[in-house]
Amino acid sequence: MRLRRTPLLSSSVVVALALSALACGGLPGLTPNVPDEEKPETEADADADADADADADADPNADADNDGFVAEDDCDDSDPDVHPGAAELCNGADDDCDGDTDEDASDASTWYADADEDTYGDPADTRVGCDAPAGYVANDDDCDDTSARTNPGASEVCNGRDDDCDEVADDDATDADWYATDADGDGFGDAGTLSLSCEGVDNDWDCDDRDASEPQYVDSGASGAQDGSLSRPWDTIQEGIDGATRCVVVRAGTYREAVDFSGKNISVTGVDGAASTTIDATGRSAPAVSFAASEGPSAELVGFTVTGGDGFVEDTSTTYACGSTATCTDYYSTWCGGGIYVDNADPTLTDLVVQLNELPVASSSASGNDTYYTYSFGGGVCLLSSAAALQNVYVYDNYADQGGGVYADQYSAFTWTQGHMLENEATDGGGLQIDGGTATAYNVFSLGNVASDAGGGVALFDGALTIVNWTLSGDLSPTGAGIYGSGARLQMMNTIVYASRAGDGVELSSSTLTAQYNDVYGNAGDEYSGVTDPTGTNGNISADPQFTAISPDGDFTNDDYTLQATSPAVDAGNSAAPYNDADGSRNDMGGFGGPEGSW
Questions:
Q1: Which of 262, 355, 459, 507 allows an S-S link to 428, with CB 3.0 to 4.6 Å?
Q2: Which of 47-61, 72-86, 447-461 has the highest mean pLDDT?
């Protein structure tokens, strides 16, 4: 290429040009002499604002976010919520433009010290801030910040402290037990006050919590000085009765004695139950228990096995002329109540097992002009002129000539709810004999009782009996194996009479029968005799009741007399609401039906 030579300028011309260029904002050859708005920006300060950058700066008097603060005073003129005087918030920004972030924030939280590190805070030790300080939590629920075992999430235990911070100490404690109040401090809790608690006494056996001398306390293992207190109990029940005015508490054991209530209207309770508390009168020549001095319903015997009684004997005689010069005398020994003897009294008998009490066999023998007669009544229980109330009484394997299990005379009117008559024996009335008296009984089982003459289960002579929801099975007698009545009034409802081993199920002579909703089936003789068979009327049926488990071994204690689901006796009893089963369904026939059947 051929270069073009440029002529040299004089020094005066150069100076003039330089001055002219400065006046125009540049030097020739470096920046064209053009107005600023037409010049392209360069890396030099092209915006003429003296801040050494090439960008146009905001006007310091502008308010771009319209928050009332100009840019010069606003630390973030793009956010109207940020300016001097704004509320500081917990957001990681300097909202009030004071150079600090999140200080004294209006939405700051209160934090509570958690010195015991149980995640519950102490309301008395606080800090305020956006974030939790070390050792602080967001709640103030702790009522004791010195113990990690005390907080709203802790389990209440019996220690006299409010472990779960509900302002109540020892309430609903996990280690609470059943305790009763003991106002008189005798170690016996007020009846009916047992509750889950951390204090009190572990029984509710006191019949008078205002009197430290009641109850009288009996323990067969007691020795040394005795006064009937908890620390010095009597060792015989009779001592307890003699010392009591309201009640006697008897602990488990076998008490080899005969007991007489002696006219006292008191309760005598085996608190450990009949299975472990026994009155054994073997060899005492007396009933095991006697009520023979006008005791009333508040005379109560509860929770015992009663055994080994010989009964009360009354000896009388009659002398008469038996020839022109001879005199004859008839001597009578009448025994009554081997287990429990009741004469002109109305006691309450509850949760008892009356077993293995045996009275003499009826007999007569002559010696010269004299004749000796022996009679016996009520091997288990004998009721004379009594309105006794029996509840859950189990009468097993007792013997008397009349009424092997229970006997009631013409002046008695007793009630029985829930019970068993099992394998008792007699001449008449193996399980029960009512001799002119009256009785009403619910939910009783008569099983395997034997009468050599009449009434294997029940013999009813000139009296009245109402039975509801009974089960009679396996009873044996040549005359009326289940029930026999002569000159009697029998009302039976919701009852099953099944599989007598000999004799008719129900046999009546010169008697009246009112029968509703019964199942009489499978008895060795006729189902009914001496009366019009009511089967097919008034809800009466004759069908296999389908008990759960009946064995042929002759041991009635191991049989299960509940009904199978397919039993025709299920929901077949009286449909009226008062007779409904305990679960509210229609009455099931048999001993486990009706409102008292859940036992």
A1: 459
A2: 447-461
